[in-house]
Amino acid sequence: MKIVFTGDSITDSGRNREDGKSLGSGYVKILADKLRPIYPDTDIELVNRGANGYEIHDLLENVQRDVLDLHPDVAVILIGINDLRHKFTYERELDLEKLGSDYRQLLTTIKGAGITLICLEPFLLPAPDKLRMRPLFNRQLKVMREAALEIADEFVAYDEMFNGLTESIRYTEYSADGIHPTHRGSRLIADNAIKAIRKHLK
Q: For the whole model, what pTM was predicted?
């Protein structure tokens, strides 16, 4: 059974591009270390194809190489925060209609190849310099959530999860900058992604 993980830097997490078996140091590695002992008699291959800086349109343009050509049984996608972040960093326009269309095309392409699709929701924690991003991010999440719930086999709502926790726990426990998870944040991602993946293990 092959599971491919793809998305942006949260998935990439420092993986070694020269080593196809490198899982990086983030949630994919944590997930692998937890999942394999649960299924000691199952041959599970995990592949990390996350790429720093990826936006949704980048993954759509490279979905053949990053997902389809690897012939996975399951694809796990975590993408979308850079679409928001780059708008504020580089003063780009964020066209939510195009973002939604690209995301739907991405998900439909993967599902159309007969691959089980698990969508992990992007998230934004309440770091002071990120608060101005929240109103637009809420609109983006609505567009992405509707597509994922319609097309994907599983959807994990991390934004609500993280922000619920930060009502009683300081956000820096989960992300120093509101975007990139700490080890504790990566464990939370991994633990909840495993629950979705396990429903589809053969």
A: 0.96
